Amino acid sequence: MTWLLWSLTVLCFPSSGLHSQTAIGHWRDCLDYSKVLHVEPANDGVYAAGRGGLFHFDPDDRTLTVMSKASGLNDVGVATVAYDSQTRYLVVAYNNSNVDLVQDGRVFNISDIKRSDIGGDKNIYRIRFRRGYAYLATGFGIVVVDLARHEIKETCYIGAGGAYTPVHDIAFTSDSIYAATGEGVKRIALGERYLTISDRWQLDTRLNGVTVTMLEAFDGKLLAAGYSFDPEELTLYQKTDTGYHAWNNGAVLSMRAGGGRLTLTRDSSVVRYDTAFQMIDSLTAYTWGYLTCFDAVTSDDGTLWAGHSWDGLIRFTATGDEAFHPAGPFSGDYVYSLTPFNYRMLVCPGGHNSFYGNAYLPADLFSTDGRSWRSLDLSNGMLASATDLLSADVNPNDTNEIVAALWGRGVASIRNNKVQVLYDENNTGGALVPFYSGGISTLRTGAVTFDGDGNLWVLNSHSGYALARRTASGTWKGFSTSRLDDMPSLDKLIWDSINHYLWFCGRSNVIYVHDGDGRMAKVNPNNGSKLSTDNVTALVQDRTGNLWVGTNKGIKVIYDAAKAFQYGGAGEVSPVTCSNITITNGEFYEYLMAYESITAIAVDGANRKWVGTAAGGLYLISANGMDQLEHFTAENSPLFSNKIVTLAIQPRTGEVYIGTEQGLQVYRSTATYAVGTPLDDIHAFPNPVRPGYEGPIAIKGFVRDAMVHITDAAGHTVYSTQALGGQAIWNGRTVNGERVAAGVYYVFAADNEGGNRSVAKILILR
Questions:
Q1: Which of 673, 693, 718 is the last residue of a domain?
Q2: Same domain, yes or no, for 669 and 695?
Q3: N or C: lower Cβ tally within 10 Å for the chain?
Q4: Which SS3 state, helix, strand or coil, does residue 562 take?
């Protein structure tokens, strides 16, 4: 059992979507809540589950509450949900067959189906309730869950001879239990004690030739939705004493009984019927557009709730309609790369497959300040049919310009949230040279970055001019890279702020380096290494100028980047070495993360390294790599998945943005980036510290690695520490571990020479 912590902000309106400031050591998710697949009225509001996640809407105070791993749930990827008003249990079934039972803020996990060795289909298609039990319709049969005991009561394999058969839905009438199975509709008497005996389930042959996918008991009548040929063309049947009467047909996405109404969701409408099956209304639009919904149901008070395909949860009452959903990026489960800028984070949702072909994800760019989200305004058609936006950066000389690389279409210049120019082979003076294959030309522009002078650099794969530059004045130039052999697919590019070199790599075991003028060389990742690797997967420069290289077998470091062109820079193999870091593991020595395939590395304000892996989760290691400080996995933390795609750190807040295969989330770390001089406003959070708060107090805005002393009002030092980058952490206790008394405490900080001093106050309430 875990406790559900309703820690994410409650929102009054979906467009504002404000998140509260995340506390040190806490998580929040950044998912797409706009596509609601399931709607479930409850005693205290409505639950809505979408492709991104699950949230609750309270109509009394008009608040939204996000429910996720960050707030106590045990998994991600909701398959379906259902609420039992009798027991007040919400049952959440996940795509991996895990199950959570939620009641009064507590979460009870049932992982039996997920962990079972059942072969084949283990999906949970529908959840029904009766007398304190939840009946799960699964890909192999029916699972009955005792809600009070939080355990599986029995599993019913109701295929012929007790075999597995998919059960798509279940319905209860006054005398029977019906199951829509892969063998047809089956029935068993409601009072039957032995549901697990397959022979007791009788096949209803009156619907032979019809594959039934939905069942519903409405006003004492059994309804079935099924198809004979086309799964998208369902016929609705009402069971009668003599058989089944077909009364409606066409595409039906959901069929729900509630509030004395039968509510049908179709491709572009929601239709409601009374108990005599007379149409009451048919809705095709709401205030903001067409009514393209996945699910809809009428609650007991007559309110119609609909799950929209792009506008979240919609409420229809006699006075009008409203739409609600928490803020998040559209298509938020796709994250390819992240770029921090001031207090914002840019999220690129593109991608490519393992062979570097297009993933064909719609071209867009999301931006967040940690509170609200926005996507590109695509109304001018500049990105029509464009896909896979992989990389973005902000022009340091003109921060109103964002430049983004599109895998297949070139480079977009974005201002005021709109694409203003799309750079390709036609308007760059030949700097961007297309890749030709089978008579088709395409620009494999995989990454962009700005240097310290405001020059834009672009990677262009499979071209004799794999590197291109747009100067700060707007002039384009392509650099011949033919001396570096045939350029592979390239999608990683960094600007070396110490040596002023360009380092890039991609689908190969080679690192390329260019001086931005004419010299170029190749770096062998195994030169100077004691552990041979096959692929370079990540590349980042730390705050001392060293280059950290992620590989398929751990991490290597380039300490001698300045030697890149020691042999001349004519395309030869450079003498630069890629060194392993040797660490001790008890009595044994091993190389840093040698058993992990690295996918991403980010450097925080204290020069520590956050490392993402392909299957081992997220690590935090010390600045020199010798110590492991944290290891987050999907099993021991709210981390969505152990497969990390990308990482970035918001420099002002110290928040670590983590792109996983299941979507984007944020972890609030202890370090922030420091500034050259301390900020005028040294900020402490929380401040004041309320009674009962036992967590860390973050104080930020210091000069780098400042020495921090905290005193009471009389000037007695109660605690001293050193800032991590620009932020210090205080636990509200003295150096002896005792809780400090209520009162005002003063924060004094200075650099190692005693300069760059700063002062702040913290109020402690008891």
A1: 673
A2: no
A3: N
A4: helix
Contact 564, 577 (CB under 8 A): no
- Cα–Cα distance between 439 and 350 in angstroms, integer? 25
Secondary structure element (H or E) that encloses residue 521, with its range: strand 520-523
Q: What is the pLDDT of residues 12-49, one digit of tens each?
A: 333 333 334 578 899 999 999 999 999 999 999 999 99
Assign residue 307 a region (left: φ > 0; alpha: ψ between -120 and 50; beta: otherwise). Answer: beta
- Give 196-261 as a 3 state SS string: CCHHHCEECHHHCCCEEEEEEEECCEEEEEEECCCCCCEEEEEECCCCEEEEEEECCCEEEEECCE
d(Cα 333, Cα 249) in Å, to the nearest integer?
34
Same domain, 352 and 470: yes
CA-to-CA separations, 237 to 234, 256, 373, 593, in angstroms, rounded: 10, 14, 44, 60
Q: Are 75 and 94 in contact (CB under 8 A)?
A: yes
Q: Can you list the positions of beta strands (E) in 69-119? A: 78-84, 89-94, 99-103, 106-110
Tokens (6 digits) for 423: 């750079």
Taking the CA atoms of the chain, what radius of gyration do you get in angstroms? 30
pLDDT tens-digit series, residues 214-253: 999 999 999 999 999 888 889 999 999 889 999 887 889 9
Contact status, residue 364 vs residue 412, Cβ threshold 8 Å: no
Query: Which structural domain, as residue segments, surrounds residue 395?
Result: 329-495
Residues 6 or more apart from 355 whose CB is under 8 A from it? none
Residues 345 and 472 placed together within one structural domain of the fold: yes
378 plus 425 within the same structural domain: yes
Please give the model's pTM, rounded to 2 decimal places: 0.88
